[in-house]
Amino acid sequence: QVHLVESGGGLVQSGGSLRLSCAASGTLSSIYAMGWYRQVPGKRRELVATITGGGSTNYADSVKGRFTISRDNAKKTAYLQMNRLKPEDTAVYYCKREQSGLAYWGQGTQVTVSS
User: Fold this and answer.
1) What string of DSSP letters covers the chain?
2) Within 13 Å of residue 33, how many CA atoms lie on the same side as its CB?
3) Interatomic CA distance for residues 43 and 48, integer angstroms
4) How does strand 57-59 pair with strand 46-52?
5) Contacts of 64 (CB under 8 A, 6+ apart)
6) Which pLDDT value is given to residue 5?
7) pLDDT at 93
8) Residue 100: Cβ within 10 Å count
C-alpha cells in the first residue's frame, strides 16, 4: 500500500554536503513517522534520524549537529540534509515510514564520502 523512493545519494568529498529525498505514495495515513537509517556491509542497520507527524525529531549521536531531517507534507516527501560529511558516513541510506502498526522501506541510496 505504501511505496517509498529515495534519491540524492552519490559521491562527495569529506566535508561536503548532500540532501537525500524520500517520496511517498500509496495509501498514506495522517498518523505516521518517518525515519532515515543507514547500513554498511557486515553491520546492523542503524537509525540516523526520525521525525513524527507532529514534527518531533531524534538523531543518532554520530550525526547530531550535522544532519537535519524534515518533511514536506504537501509534497509527501521527507528529506535528510547531510552537512560536513565524513568518510564514516559512507553507507546505503534507507527511508522508512511507519503507519498503522507497519513499517515500509525504500530501496536505499548509496552515499560515499571520500577522504
Assistant:
1) -EEEEEE--EEEETT--EEEEEEEEES--SS-EEEEEEE-TTS--EEEEEEETT--EEE-TTTTTTEEEEEETTTTEEEEEE-S--GGG-EEEEEEEEETTEEEE---EEEEEE-
2) 14
3) 14
4) antiparallel
5) none
6) 97
7) 98
8) 10
Contacts of residue 44, defined as CB under 8 A and 6 or more positions apart, other chains included, come to none
Tell which residue, 11, 42, 8, has the closest CA to residue 22.
8
For the record, the C-alpha cell of 85 comes out as 560529511
Q: Which amino acid is at 108?
A: G
What cell does 114 get? 571520500
Greatest C-alpha distance within the chain = 42
In angstroms, the CA 44 to CA 34 distance is 19
Per-residue pLDDT tens digits for 34-62? 999 999 999 999 999 999 988 999 999 99
User: What gap in Å lies between CA 47 and CA 67, rounded to an integer?
Assistant: 12
